[in-house]
């Protein structure tokens, strides 16, 4: 079922990329009109897509997918972006893109499972230790609203948000569980901290309002491109429904934070994290969608939250499809609202920046913990060294992926040293 679902998603995503309807890579989306309007040829588009996406698939999507049984969606959609743009822009090319996209999805599932099984047969089985990579994320994910507040409004207001979020967290610990009639409701501390932090950030953001003469109606400027997205609403709704259904089955996840929370069984927290991420992506998806006429296969990413909150895959499909449809119908109004409240647009950028910075720190700590569990002492040594070397080299590997990749490399090195008698397997 998992293989079939990922194959269908891979096929449809590759077709959407091939037709220029939707691409996942945020950097590729603004370039698509250059091809669609004849200012760039197909080979140049394909080369650009490959340059932007391949490194992220290998260095970001797959390492996270190896640490749990859940596939990070970047592994799928960044690959299908490349597949779609490499296939010819004609009927035959679209069919080929769909077939290759499906095969890619199958290969991704079987390949990842095969790698995990192969690792389990090694003298030093480090798969269980890799779970340590996500432990700091599970605990610290609720900090990012305070970080976003600090990015946007300064360290003092960020600190105030952090303190109030911490108070909310501790109150949740004290009063939980709450008894209502004959039942109990347990409050998750991190979830409560996240809610408090997001409320404070939104209060700050909505206090900024642009004057009428400063508001530019993007929908009227890019009317044809908005209509192009609306003309593809049905296929985009199907895509959104599939993503929500696959998420509800714990086959895929939209980001590393939700992935690690879901793998720990903290589904509600994962849902809140995905919801907050969706809020952060509203400005980016709305602005790039209106300006380019190209949407994202997962829309504003709320479909991942739907899949986590609604665990029935059929119901998730229906609601996920409806959410994407609603996003597209309201695209123009959302664009106008963001122009009216520039603080909200800026908050979206800062939420994404805060999440990235939090992940970078948490995954470095998690990678060091995992590596040290695999090879005590040597693990810290290697991860710290590789992280600094990556910084010196100009970050050829995305910073937040260094921790997980280094932990995997430590596991492989431990096995090589064990085979030649230079490593003792930890008890």
UniProtKB/TrEMBL annotation:
UniProt KW keywords: Membrane, Transmembrane, Transmembrane helix
**Pfam families, alphabetized:** YhfT (PF10797)
List the protein's name: YhfT family protein
Q: Where are the transmembrane segments?
A: 46-73, 94-113, 133-151, 158-180, 186-205, 233-252, 272-295, 302-331, 361-389, 401-425
